[in-house]
User: Which sequence fits this backbone?
């Protein structure tokens, strides 16, 4: 019943170096620099396409997803704020939202463009590298989430809720799809996932609260 | 809906009604906006760190570039149309009528075909579209103005014989406005394409196929020789 989620290999140095340039390229995109947009695409499209494919599981729809994301990024690059998220996380959040929207049978009102604006409401949950990170948000309990914390909290869940929520996280499955995969009722899955999400939120909060 | 959480929305777990209801909440409730945005980043960070990169097809970048070129040109063309209007008045010819619209003026190039597009008799705009197949140019003139449905914008598409849709760009809607489309937009035989108009969400980016309703499809017509 468990869902395998092996740790990925470390990113190659060239990717890390490219990621360090992403904020500059996004700023240049906001100024209309096509060359910077091309570099941004070359550096990130593979990872974002992989994310689209993971959720959508079909090449044509994943291509549509990636195109929508980069059109939105080109138009809304000025909304990226390096104080709120790393550039790669920002791009992945837009991509994940678009992929989930495309994967559902109904139309969501919030587009990829909308999501670039929406993300400005976040503080900086993934920025552990900022020198003044501790000063940012004492009012938020999952501020300073470190990269491994979510996985630790997932691992701490009971087996059934963990399996259910892992399908939601890693496969983008709906409640019904999870119920089918786990051969249980829809209501049971909803109960597991909702309880697991509450526990996750609490766990992440405990892990990042100032001691 | 009472139990709905931002995490469920981010993960796409909700059914259609609850998803729409939560999006409605997101527009007005600051607390939901903040929590949802942060969970979006948390989930994205986690899932992207566990996802292998896959190389997208090479043509996808070309298509994206073409889309942003077309969009930029649509914006530029819609904002500067004066000289084209003068030229249009100098090239008066009688034109084919489609959907009960008589178009009084043509744009000044020869050897072209045209289509006349109109949405309906509800006051929505009508456009005259001329394609110069020799030079791969396409000019659009707004011949009648009116209101498009709230929150929607008309977008012009080319539909190829092979079933591919190519976004030309957002159509201007004020009478007299013109739009010229880049030759770089065309990949194949323009004559074999049809023109289509869809009504897209006004704030949405234009993808590689219509998301909104396609309200019109029109073929090219031969243009009588200019007098």
Assistant:
């Amino acid at each position: 019943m468990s869902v395998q989620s092996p740790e990925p290999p470390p990113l190659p140095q060239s990717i890390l170096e490219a990621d360090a340039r992403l904020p500059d390229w996004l700023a240049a995109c906001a100024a209309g620099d096509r060359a910077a947009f091309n570099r941004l695409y070359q550096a990130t499209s593979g990872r974002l396409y992989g994310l689209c494919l993971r959720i959508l599981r079909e090449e044509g729809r994943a291509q549509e997803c990636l195109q929508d994301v980069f059109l939105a990024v080109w138009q809304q690059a000025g909304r990226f704020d390096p104080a709120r998220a790393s550039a790669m996380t920002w791009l992945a959040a837009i991509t994940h939202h678009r992929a989930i929207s495309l994967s559902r049978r109904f139309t969501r009102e919030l587009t990829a463009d909308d999501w670039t604006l929406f993300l400005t409401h976040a503080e900086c949950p993934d920025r552990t590298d900022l020198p003044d990170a501790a000063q940012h948000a004492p009012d938020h309990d999952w501020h300073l989430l470190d990269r491994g914390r979510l996985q630790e909290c997932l691992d701490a869940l009971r087996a059934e809720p963990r399996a259910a929520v892992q399908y939601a996280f890693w496969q983008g499955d709906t409640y019904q799809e999870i119920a089918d995969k786990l051969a249980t009722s829809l209501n049971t899955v909803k109960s597991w996932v909702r309880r697991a999400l509450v526990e996750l939120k609490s766990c992440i909060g405990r892990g990042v609260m100032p001691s | 809906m009472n139990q709905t959480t931002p995490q469920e929305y981010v993960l796409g777990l909700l059914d259609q009604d609850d998803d729409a209801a939560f999006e409605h909440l997101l527009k007005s409730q600051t607390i939901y906006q903040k929590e949802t945005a942060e969970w979006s980043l948390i989930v994205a960070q986690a899932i992207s760190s566990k996802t292998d990169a896959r190389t997208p097809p090479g043509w996808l970048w070309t298509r994206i570039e073409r889309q942003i070129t077309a969009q930029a040109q649509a914006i530029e063309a819609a904002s500067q149309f004066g000289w084209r209007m003068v030229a249009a008045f100098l090239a008066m010819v009688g034109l084919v009528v489609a959907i009960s619209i008589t178009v009084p003026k043509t744009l000044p190039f020869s050897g072209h075909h045209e289509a006349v597009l109109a949405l309906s008799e509800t006051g929505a705009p009508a456009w005259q579209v001329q394609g110069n197949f020799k030079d791969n140019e396409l000019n659009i003139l707004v011949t009648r103005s009116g209101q498009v449905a709230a929150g929607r914008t008309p977008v012009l598409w080319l539909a190829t014989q092979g079933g591919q849709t190519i976004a030309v760009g957002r159509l201007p809607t004020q009478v007299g406005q013109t739009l010229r489309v880049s030759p770089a937009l065309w990949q194949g035989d323009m004559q074999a394409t049809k023109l289509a108009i869809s009504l897209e969400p006004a704030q949405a980016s234009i993808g590689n196929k219509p998301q909104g309703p396609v309200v019109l499809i029109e073929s090219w017509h031969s243009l009588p020789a200019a007098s």
Notes: Confidence is low (pLDDT under 50) at residues 1-8, 129-144, 207-211 of chain A. The radius of gyration of chain A is 18 Å.
